[in-house]
Amino acid sequence: MCTYLTEKFALEGSGKGAQGYFALTEAMVYVDHPQHAPYEHTVNIDFLNPSQGPSSRVAVELTEESALALIDAIRSALAAAPPGLTSTAPASKAA
Amino acid sequence: MYDAVLAETVTVSGHGGDRIEAYSARPMAAGPFGGVVVIHHMPGYDAPTKEIVRRFAAEGYAAVCPNLYSREAPGAAPDDAAAAARAAGGVPDERLVGDVAGAAEYLRGLPSSNGKVGTIGYCSGGRQSFLALASLDLQAGVDCYGAFVTGTPPEGFPLQVSPLKDRVRDLRGPLLGLFGNDDQYPSPPHVDELEEELKARGKAYEFHRYDDAGHAFFAVDRPSYRPQAAMDGWQKIFRFFGEHL
């Protein structure tokens, strides 16, 4: 099915696309047909910077298990680092 | 038999007079030929869709596929364009109708045109093919597993994919529907609902439903491809357009 559903949020960081690194400003997460992964549906994540055009995009297409493993791995990595180390919030920086 | 085909990127006038990119393929003979507007699937105006356009030309139709994501992502790779269109909230129905109208006008303007134009769409394009047939002067339409013609979208779906059941009464020409019985959107009950409404409104239609096939069974580059269903479906499509265009 085409789910049409899209979770979109603003973010800060960088990604490496076809033309090298660029600043990221938003991301989309959606469950729908992949472009490349050999499955009928995948969890698709696009890291984007629309102000730099549609090609400023880093895309991944993951199975459900892989997406959930990614979430766990991110949480584990953050938990293992000093709190707030990668945060942009001023209060956290001090920690 | 002379069978040369010309395939090329062209520009057509879409919704609001916007000049949009489109892929055209047409026989090089004098005609007259019927026209087919190909409506690409949600993953975009991609190489397999252009192959479909050329296939219609090889079968004796002038065909054109408007790039529905032209505005969001002119010149971008099809996957990047699809992502940009999704980020912008998708293709509004009104704009789709205007873009198909422009594509149909392009086909009718060809010297080889017989004046008749049909549409075919896959996936989200199936729903859009139905919408075009209910909105424009078209002689036939094919809906390949379009979700949300009937059925209720789950909560949170954007407005532009609202169901179109109330538009059945507006259909201008016969509808050919091709569906996989393992599909969830549209599910067999969704297809039943559409079929009942077509019957109730006395509309000409022809539905075929395939076992062991789900969504996107025509998509040759995806694991959903089902050769048996797709080959039979193609035969049905050419017979249908042969009768009506």
Automatic annotation (TrEMBL), chain A:
The source's superkingdom equals Bacteria
What InterPro entries has UniProt attached to this entry? DUF6295 (IPR046262)
Q: What is this protein called?
A: Uncharacterized protein
Q: Which organism is it from?
A: Streptomyces montanisoli
Automatic annotation (TrEMBL), chain B:
Any one Pfam family here would be DLH
Question: GO MF terms on file?
Answer: hydrolase activity
Keywords for this protein:
Hydrolase
Q: What domain of life?
A: Bacteria
Q: Where is the Dienelactone hydrolase domain?
A: 20-244
PANTHER family in alphabetical order:
ALPHA_BETA-HYDROLASES SUPERFAMILY PROTEIN, CARBOXYMETHYLENEBUTENOLIDASE-RELATED
Q: Please give the name of this protein.
A: Dienelactone hydrolase family protein
Query: What organism is recorded for this protein?
Result: Streptomyces montanisoli
